[in-house]
């Protein structure tokens, strides 16, 4: 990276942050405040009552791992709460990127029905320009589809996302339901003129298809292994095998890792895997499989920051940090 050039900046909920300040790992696909509840059971919710536990988890990870940044992919129709993201970021000391866009069709708000691509693009550009409750989005996502090809409304939303990304320079992160439909998403987005390296195809660790992952990565897209720890969807053993296959194929610079915490029972404080499962469980297994410090840094910091900014932040500059202390669950300290 040219030291004479101004440092790239990440748009966070509390303002722009130079990439040079983000020296620790990044979680590129998480949820800190959302409401996907359509049944009234309240399971798929991270509400105000959960915010202190969310902030405490992130603060613990900042101390334990140096966690620098969380990309929060709750968008329109998902119970987005920009003010809550600001409070969580300030309470935890971890930078947070907010999102705009629309999820997949079952969660589309009425505004999507009948809207043209042009109208949807204008909505995104207004949010990116003017902010949402004072918070400026730093990414478009998680823009969704389900099945092998997007539905009509999903295609319009994806096309609008691509056009807004072209106009603003923001990247697009997708929701490929259960890992399906990534090639169709990439084809649709790139037909609008968006470069593949500004696109992350979501939930690919739920698709046991190394050939598809290689195809997407070879075209230049990021491959998101972003449901790490969700064993009821896919075992981490399979995730590790899929990741190693992608790495062995020479696509380390296109892999992203995250946990996609999207229900309150996933929180560490409620006995779930928590936002730290990637660091406490999955990465040790990856290291045991032969991954060194430079590769871990590439996967957990350089790749997500390059997606956000379009610029490679360069190798990690070591900073002395205190020896990390384990953080027990609340019930362990009673």
Automatic annotation (TrEMBL):
It comes from the Bacteria. SUPFAM superfamilies: Metallo-dependent hydrolases. Residues 316-327 have a biased composition (Basic residues). Residues 306-334 are annotated as: Disordered. Keywords: Hydrolase, Metal-binding. Belongs to the metallo-dependent hydrolases superfamily. Phosphotriesterase family. This is Phosphotriesterase. It comes from Streptomyces yaizuensis.
